[in-house]
Design brief:
Length: 319
């Protein structure tokens, strides 16, 4: 039985009923890692709405989707099926629900599904008991795969998705892979993207990641923002087609990989989850894109200023 959850004040990133009904709500945009707003719980319930978005929140007790008074005309419009609940942290025990749809709604609207993908369920193996993991609970009528394998905003959304055999490289050279020292320092020419701190400045990067299992090297340096990111481990690699930024380009590909990195600043070093998203939009790499995020830093995806991304392998088995 789904427990009754205590209500709390509205988190800053949640839509009001009027905003959602008018379709005006959009998650806040930020050039830095988006904040995670704390909420003890939140009922997600209103009718006659076409846009329901919940993102970048931290829940101590979870979220429930429930019925509303008849004058809301919810029975004529199962709006919970249009909800998107992404990039949230459900910091609850395995006995509590992260996202729960009321049993009456599951029976009344069996084909309405909440988009609950890319959330952190307080466990890298995902939610239970409907899901396969030991994290926060989830009910039927919630699409939870893939899930975050580490807390937002840095965690990669790779949970429940088999890693893709293949190799992904990014650097300043076209014909050869980036070269790293034995301790993971980039030795070869880096690729270039705009700096987070100043679009007129440049951030540099190089990486080689292969699977399976996922291994490799990554070094990223935003000198203007005083941030250097050096990968310590890799948790997975996912390759798909077409590229997110160039879907009309024949043969384009997208890759996502993540893991744990040292985030180095002049004020100190922290260990944080990271996610990298790249697009290979064909040679010579002028349309390729790169993006990186950790718990405290986020930049891109942006089109390269110089360099090249190469993705070999795909979920469909291509080269």
């Amino acid at each position: 039985m789904i427990p009754t959850l205590p209500l709390s004040s509205r988190p800053r990133h949640l839509p009001s009923r009027d905003q959602a009904a008018a379709g005006r709500f959009q998650p806040s945009q930020s050039t830095t890692a988006p904040p995670i707003t704390r909420s003890k719980s939140r009922p997600f319930s209103h009718g006659n709405s076409s846009v329901n978005i919940v993102t970048h929140c931290r829940y101590e007790h979870g979220m429930r989707v429930m019925s509303v008074p008849q004058n809301e005309r919810f029975e004529d419009n199962p709006s919970f099926g249009t909800a998107t609940v992404n990039q949230n942290n459900f910091d609850v025990t395995m006995a509590a629900y992260g996202i729960a749809v009321h049993p009456a709604l599951i029976v009344a609207f069996p084909n309405s599904i909440v988009d609950g993908t890319c959330n952190w369920w307080d466990s890298a193996d995902g939610p239970g008991p409907v899901g396969p993991g030991t994290g926060a609970r989830v009910t039927p009528n919630v699409d939870y795969t893939p899930w975050l394998i580490a807390p937002a905003p840095g965690g990669a959304c790779l949970g429940g998705v088999p890693s893709t055999p293949g190799k992904v490289t990014g650097g300043g050279q076209i014909e050869s892979d980036p070269v790293f020292s034995i301790d993971g320092m980039l030795l070869s020419l880096p690729a270039l993207v705009p700096s987070l701190a100043d679009p007129r400045a440049q951030a540099t990067f190089g990486f080689v990641v292969k699977c399976c299992p996922a291994t490799g090297n990554l070094e990223y340096n935003d000198h203007q923002a005083d941030v250097r990111i050096k990968a310590q481990s890799f948790d997975g690699l996912s390759i798909s087609s077409p590229g997110t930024s160039c879907p009309a380009t024949p043969g384009s590909k997208h890759a996502t990989f993540g893991g744990t990195a040292a985030v180095i600043r002049s004020t100190g070093t922290t260990t944080e989850p990271f996610t990298v998203d790249v697009d290979d939009c064909g040679e010579p790499g002028t349309a390729d894109s790169f993006g990186i995020k950790t718990r405290t830093y986020s930049n891109g995806p942006s089109t390269l200023i110089g360099g090249n991304i190469q993705i070999h392998g795909s979920r469909s088995g291509g080269d």
